[in-house]
Amino acid sequence: xxxxxxxxxxxxxxxxxxxxxxxxxxxxxxxxxxxxxxxxxxxxxxxxxxxxxxxxxxxxxxxxxxxxxxxxxxxxxxxxxxxxxxxxxxxxxxxxxxxxxxxxxxxxxxxxxxxxxxxxxxxxxxxxxxxxxxxxxxxxxxxxxxxxxxxxxxxxxxxxxxxxxxxxxxxxxxxxxxxxxxxxxxxxxxxxxxxxxxxxxxxxxxxxxxxxxxxxxxxxxxxxxxxxxxxxxxxxxxxxxxxxxxxxxxxx
Amino acid sequence: xxxxxxxxxxxxxxxxxxxxxxxxxxxxxxxxxxxxxxxxxxxxxxxxxxxxxxxxxxxxxxxxxxxxxxxxxxxxxxxxxxxxxxxxxxxxxxxxxxxxxxxxxxxxxxxxxxxxxxxxxxxxxxxxxxxxxxxxxxxxxxxxxxxxxxxxxxxxxxxxxxxxxxxxxxxxxxxxxxxxxxxxxxxxxxxxxxxxxxxxxxxxxxxxxxxxxxxxxxxxxxxxxxxxxxxxxxxxxxxxxxxxxxxxxxxx
Amino acid sequence: xxxxxxxxxxxxxxxxxxxxxxxxxxxxxxxxxxxxxxxxxxxxxxxxxxxxxxxxxxxxxxxxxxxxxxxxxxxxxxxxxxxxxxxxxxxxxxxxxxxxxxxxxxxxxxxxxxxxxxxxxxxxxxxxxxxxxxxxxxxxxxxxxxxxxxxxxxxxxxxxxxxxxxxxxxxxxxxxxxxxxxxxxxxxxxxxxxxxxxxxxxxxxxxxxxxxxxxxxxxxxxxxxxxxxxxxxxxxxxxxxxxxxxxxxxxx
Amino acid sequence: xxxxxxxxxxxxxxxxxxxxxxxxxxxxxxxxxxxxxxxxxxxxxxxxxxxxxxxxxxxxxxxxxxxxxxxxxxxxxxxxxxxxxxxxxxxxxxxxxxxxxxxxxxxxxxxxxxxxxxxxxxxxxxxxxxxxxxxxxxxxxxxxxxxxxxxxxxxxxxxxxxxxxxxxxxxxxxxxxxxxxxxxxxxxxxxxxxxxxxxxxxxxxxxxxxxxxxxxxxxxxxxxxxxxxxxxxxxxxxxxxxxxxxxxxxxx
Lengths: 252, 252, 252, 252
Hints:
4 copies of one chain form a homotetramer. Chain A is an alpha/beta fold. The first copy, chain A, has one domain (about 5-215): Rossmann fold, CATH 3.40.50.10900. Chain A is about 35% helix and about 25% strand. Chain A contains 7 helices and 11 strands. The first copy, chain A, has an 8-stranded mixed sheet with strand order 1-3-6-7-2-8-11-9, sandwiched between helices. In chain A, strand 6 and strand 7 (about 80-90) form a beta hairpin. Chains in contact: A-B, A-C, B-D, C-D. Chains A and B meet through strand 4 and strand 5 of A and helix 2, strand 9, strand 10 and helix 4 of B.
């Protein structure tokens, strides 16, 4: 195997495809959002990306077989156009690996003549929330007003820490290729897996790309998480202060 | 020395060889199992693998001489067939090194026309145990029923964390070469070196490969470890709760 | 993108240019100093350096757009000569990356026929200070007396830990190219962003290079930091001992 | 600069040279020993080794100038033969760097037709000591008896952790080149810089190579350290238990 190996599983003709990335990160917002798209629409696996920059690991599947750590790209058929949806269980484990994998992902986008890339993720607020703003960032100044019109918020140099990992590099390295890219970041406590934040991000995507998706299954998952959150707040009232991040990690 | 150097110590003709890996890991189950095979059967060293991805270290031998960190492959003569048994004191120290060494190990397997690979290891249960199930995972769906017939348990997506390191990659990278591979994981507390778990794994291998091995020496080692475990449980009764993982690490 | 990519944004003719580096470090002294130069004088961006050895990250700008992690070199026009000023938000994340980026920076200096390099930084004293000595280090024995004449202090093997990172390598690798380089290190507590230390360093540079810069804006920032320092000393009097480095990190 | 750059500073004719390595390690035993040889005998710098696998750092010298992290090899003139003495302030910072630098050191040894390599170091005992045994390890079984005759102790698989870093690799990689090498490890508490242990190691070397060295300056340094050790034992008597490793690190 090479440093990065891309298996071309299928090469369908795509209609005006948009690239959507959702890898694990804060609140699993990006990954929840793209997994919901894969559940609700017809899709076809088109690429698998293997790399020594992903963990040396196989995951177990329902039937007892294993799958080597990889990142997958599916073609998702909306009514009027197609998406190329990238997801997986892992990001690269160190800096240069992040750069090299992000270039490989952009190569795939370009091979399908993608013109716009959306990187989906979460931005931590540090507190449990009722309303979920979606923050934006983009590598194309003209894109800001378009995104603002559908409710994406652009706040001064927020998040202050920038955008780290694959999402950040899709914007940064995409810009160097002349590929328009935006990051949509759903606000989330940062403590829990957050299906509500994922819904907020998908609602922006619906407006931008002109499609509709059923949120029932995501809503159910959100209610389960709400039960968890309520229990935490009870604990909080009984005890002193917020649960530690350590406690909450095991709940997510 | 290159990044990876394979010394071809011997090139015997092997009878329908099966590749068996047992490197250090949870409860040292895999390493104990393959070391027991090397003790009980005639064997011949056929390959030594050196690499800068192994620790920069020599180990001391009985006679005052040193040996550079390496992984060894021995040919083990059973009655009707041969095994290629891989073991050593170390796994790679980082991700890309794991991938590159696993490819080198698979190259050796293929050079000897191996058709099946067994990766032996342990799976931690977090508690001291009486009965030792052997969990399975494989890169070949058809292999599941064969393994189930001899008692290997396939549990839904268990272990949840997948299989990390050389064992995982032998399955994941083996699949890409069309090489059938299974991981046999003996349940073990995770606290102690566990010869009983190693025996449970070897008993599966006996059934699969049609050989018999004497377990006396492994049984003696198991009794020693049982004494240790009993002392721990006494301590446990006297004090509050389980010994910390920290305490137990020094006993293993 | 290659391991290191240098974008040649502009190639102006420069008058006897001197290279001045100020990347993040102790008390942000070097970065504050060069940012002050960029604010007070006309400047032109001449190079951007991107690299997989910088963090996999974009930063957000005022207008909602992002910029990929990079190091920038600006040409700064003093009255009689020009400076090449290198700054950025990050240093390399590991050793070999530091070496490779420092070589790239020196290549830029040499492409503009630079003869002298100044690396600006801070040296931690561990206590809040009133007077700010500037310590020196150089790769050219003849340069010591010149620097001493304008007040730079050379203390026996101080700092004992040497000079780590880009500043150190500009001296060390610069020497191998026959490029004269000095490190000017403003004393600073190490606890706070320190504009006063940055001023002390710039005053040395003024004398060495024959220019004058207005310090008003830096003075304002220094007063803000003094307020912070005073609050800390109040806390200190109320409580026991100095604030922990942990506490202070969040103030900087 | 390349990954590793070797500056050939001088190429003297050497009389039956023996290679002696002493880099920083447990109790600084190896480094103290070779530094003592460099102080007591005439020597000439013959090689400097620079590498991105050494820290990105310059050290400060008495005169205010800096020196890039490097490893140096000096030719040391004994009465009847010469030594090639390797020392420096650092070892490599990660595994592959250790391997690559060790190969570069062995290349230097071979370029001078060296037939024997001594790697000097310390082995931690965990307690302050009065008598200093010297443990041995070698890559050549025939060398064991020669070393035993001058008092080097070979203990069964001791140290159990093997020999890590440059010393270990000089034996391990040296063996692959057919180069005889031994590691001489002076017992030392592991808490303090230990000139007495360095003397014990040098006394073995005197016997093996037939030379005599004055130990006065090393003895003075040992007395200073003894004062430190006594103070620690006083503290120990006053307080409960041994000083923590943390405390002692700052004394070394």
